[in-house]
Design goal:
Elements: E1 18-26, E2 30-32, E3 38-46, E4 54-66, E5 75-81, E6 84-93, E7 102-112, E8 120-128, E9 135-137, E10 144-151
Antiparallel strand pairs: 1-10, 2-9, 3-8, 4-7, 4-9, 4-10, 5-6, 5-8
Amino acid sequence: MPVSTISSNRAVTFPGAVLQVVNATTSTFAVTNSTTYVDSGLTASITPTASSSKILILVSQNGVYKNAAANSNAVNLRLVKNGTSIGVFAVAAGYTGSLVDNIVCASFNYLDSPATTSALTYKVQFANFTNSGSVFVQANNDISAITLMEIAA
């Protein structure tokens, strides 16, 4: 019985296969008292290998802290891709309505369809829910993490 062989230099990928993973962490303390979003220091970049790929973003923003200086302050968090907001994933995190300290964690998962093979940079930004008091991320040098996974379509 004849045997046939097929050879190829191309790797075979199946839909849903993880093609690459990028992970970044930060424990750098960041603070703001403004309602204008600023960088939390949590950022990662990935270059998709195919324009049909999806990017799964996993965020764990830790040390999200509102201090006792004001009763109405709290933390807003958003995910940004290449300088454009994808969306807010936490509004008034840590809010207590009173003059007490409060520290929380915020997690977020998002499946992006960027349709490109150009480099993508994802980052987390934060702002004060109000203009009173200060809010922090990575308070006590807590470690925050962002993981980017390229998923085959």
